[in-house]
Amino acid sequence: RYFCYGCLFTSVTWTLLLFIYFNLSQESQPLKNVPVKGGQSFKYFPRKFQPRFTRSPSWLQGPNQHWGKEEGRKKAAELSPEMGMIFNEVDQEVRDVGYHKHAFNVLISNRLGYHRELPDTRNTKCKGKLYPVDLPSASVVICFFNEAFSALLRTLHSVLDRTPSHLLHEVILVDDNSEFSKYYFIHEELDAYIKKNLPGKVKLVRNAKREGLIRGRMIGASQATGEVLVFLDSHCEVNEMWLQPLLSPIKEDRRAVVCPVIDIISADTLSYSSSPIVRGGFNWGLHFKWDPVPLSELNGPEGATVPIRSPTMAGGLFAMDRKYFNELGQYDSGMDIWGGENLEISFRIWMCGGRLLIIPCSRVGHIFRKRRPYGSPGGQDTMAHNSLRLAHVWMDEYKEQYFALRPELRSRNYGDIGERLAVRKRLHCNSFKWYLDHIYPEMQVSAPNAKAQHPVFVNKGLRRPKVLQRGRLRNLLTSTCLVAQGRPSEKAGIVVVRDCDSEDPEQAWAYDEEQELILAGLLCLDMSETRSSDPPRLMKCHGSGGSQQWTLGRSNRLYQVSVGQCLMVVDPLSHKGYVAMGICNGSKAQQWQLED
Ligand code: UD2
Ligand code: MN
User: Fold this and answer.
1) pLDDT at residue number 182
2) Are 484 and 418 in a shared domain?
3) pTM recorded for the entire structure
């Protein structure tokens, strides 16, 4: 028989060539061609979707979980402002869908991976402090619902990496019936990851139905066997020596409930920064707020390193003796999904014989999102329901202050509170008046409703950032300048390029140390947080970076930190002068100069 060796050779060669081509071209393929596993798309799993580039920027090659712990940490310490750069459609979708589903920059979170170095934000005096060796052991409880995988795993690994193993009894993850979604992939993936990489200390509990964070924590606590319970949100990173300063006051006094200082992880850039030392309060709308620490709490020879008494806690991050948690009535299991439990436990601690402290030497970062990315299953306002229960059980006659602000809630049904009233009776708790007089004397009865404040804004105060550079912003391709489309005024609007005029004050930009670009001293150049394809615009300056943060960098590009793209002139030949954001490519259309 005749056999065609030539044919065999040709077909093998072609198969090989096609195979190589397919593999190399994957990253530039449109999204629909990205291969998915078993029909499920796992494109938000960084291990599989770390894009591959022939010449990729060094920071993109790591850090991620492929790097060993040490290597990854070293890399992450040099967090680049260009960490969120978009290179292709996959990046863009990860970013945009990530913002939509999680309200933070998931692209950067994925690239950071599961381990990174953090700036040590403690007061230097903390570093010299010594703690007993025989501290009680901790069970860390982390509830999550639809959390971004990389954020959850970074939370988990930060605990494993920065906690001495003799103090870490276990970590209990409570999956609050997260939806199965191609974007969360937490079901089998998480099981498999834990089995493979973290056998032993990490336990995963799954709620058969959505319980909300309050019952979720109770479920986690009921499975715990360590001496102390430590609760964390699922998008945190614990810092150096975080646990010992929390356990130590509990060892001394089992009725001390302690919170770390909650450092800020930016939702847009994932950069980690120190929080000022503030303490918890609330307003009559029953919203938590941050208050300045009274000087009486701060003096003493040790200054800002001693525990600070706090009228309330923010809610997510605290440690408490496990048996004391049970004695004190855990949480109100009639509260749903989110909200109000933080004030409830705070009032209960103080009114029933405990103490609530903030520990300045313990630092834990938390991603502060600008909105909550999920609702409740029935769409109810669970915050109102929970606050109503809290007011009826704990606030005595002062609940009238709440009703004065929320008259529509007066007649609203709040379920059975018999069990909670019994807790109050059993523990012989003090009155709410006692709490106000002794623990929160700053609270004004029938005062105007103060707005909840975030430490970022407390921190910034009214200080104006220093201007580094002033001038017109000229595009090098068209030699036209960036201006407001209409006349710049207090009103927001889009930007375009026009003929440059050095005399025109309406073309005058200022670039300041916060990396804001301010036009005519009025408005900031801003990008939509959720849609990277929207054109840039002018908005009121908000002073918290992210969507208004720009770098004037290499090869004259104007890079937007949160969107990960560069500003460019769209159609240089048209007189309309439209500009847009685009993938940074170094072209002339993307080159800008701030000049006099
Ligand atoms: C703050 C607290 C949060 C909680 C809340 C009031 C901090 C840093 N965070 O809001 O812990 O006290 O105020 O209720 O102090 N989760 C579930 N199931 C749900 C909803 C949420 O498990 O149905 C998880 C969620 O994934 C997260 C945690 O509960 O890990 C807290 O939720 P959040 O991060 O949305 O709350 P946050 O930080 O806005
Ligand atoms: Mn949170």
Assistant:
1) 61
2) no
3) 0.82
